[in-house]
Amino acid sequence: MDGTSQARYFVSRLIPAHKDPPYEQETRFPQLRSLSTEQRARLKSSFIHFDDLSYCKWMRSLKLVPPEPS
Predict the structure, then answer these.
(1) How many angstroms separate the Cα of 22 from the Cα of each of 17, 26, 35, 48?
(2) What are the two backbone dihedrals, phi and then psi, of residue 14, each rounded to the nearest 5 degrees?
(3) DSSP 49
(4) How far apart are CA 29 and CA 17, in angstroms?
(5) DSSP letters of 20-33?
(6) Short-list 7, 25, 4, 27, CA closest to 16
């Protein structure tokens, strides 16, 4: 349930893909295409801010190409 300690633990383990450009987010998470601009902004603002790189940015920092979504 949102706001519980288990939910916060789960969110803290997620790769911060919300830092990726919108076109990459939509490629990896096609469900995002169905959200309005307002819904998407609300979703993004609900994430906890971390200084960690997203998976794609981390891969690029190693001079690697992130894998294509399946």
Answers:
(1) 10, 6, 12, 18
(2) -75, 150
(3) P
(4) 10
(5) S-HHHHHHH-GGGG
(6) 25
Alpha helices for the chain (secondary structure H) = 5-12, 22-28, 37-45, 55-61
Q: How far apart are CA 24 and CA 26, in angstroms?
A: 5
pLDDT in tens, the chain (70 residues): 777 877 777 766 666 777 888 888 888 888 999 999 999 888 888 877 777 788 788 888 999 887 777 6
Contacts of 24-27 spanning 24+ positions with Cβ under 8 A = 24/56, 27/69
CA distance 6 to 10: 6
How far apart, in whole angstroms, are the C-alpha atoms of residue 37 and residue 22? 11
